[in-house]
Amino acid sequence: IAGITQAPTSQILAAGRRMTLRCTQDMRHNAMYWYRQDLGLGLRLIHYSNTAGTTGKGEVPDGYSVSRANTDDFPLTLASAVPSQTSVYFCASRIAAGRDTQYFGPGTRLTVL
Amino acid sequence: AQKVTQAQTEISVVEKEDVTLDCVYETRDTTYYLFWYKQPPSGELVFLIRRNSFDEQNEISGRYSWNFQKSTSSFNFTITASQVVDSAVYFCALNFGNEKLTFGTGTRLTIIP
What we know:
Order of helices and strands of chain A: EEEEEEEEEEE
Largest sheet of chain B: 6 strands, mixed
Shape of chain B: globular
Number of strands of chain A: 11
Largest sheet of chain A: 7 strands, mixed
Shape of chain A: globular
Radius of gyration of chain B: 14 Å
Helix content of chain A: under 10%
Oligomer: heterodimer
Order of helices and strands of chain B: EEEEEEEEEEEE
Strand content of chain B: over 45%
């Protein structure tokens, strides 16, 4: 059982470049999420998707976009990366929107120079 | 406003000692879920427990136990007979029915051999 996979594991990126972080889950979960983790701030929600074809904004959506073309994949795109987007990014999923447990992927460490 | 507070930023204990991690939350909702996640040095987020607001029974799982008290809005986590493998950052989180899982800032637990 793979669960949630994220790619790349880590990336160093020049400011201004475009970057897509990939997230795939094989649990047939309807809801998926992107969080960023920064020291002293915990995890903050960037975007979410309750089901394929729908997306919504979280707490810190500026500078990020997402799409949900199918159940399994939920890519996060930084259109023009800035140094403040240096962070660890976690993808998560759960069976359905609501109060079920969210399960997390292994994370992507992104450094924007 | 919904908020989760983990006042203990870092805790160090000697192996085999018991340790309690505190979590205090704020929410106006009457129905909500509380979670604990573990983040070991390898970086992944591991789900530990989920508790709903209607169930105030304490939970015990091996050396782990959780004490949920609505009267004090607390959901504390105790590790009995700590081991080096318990060294990690522990996050408490709150879900109050929308898409957002609100995290505390985490407590870094170090178990000294």
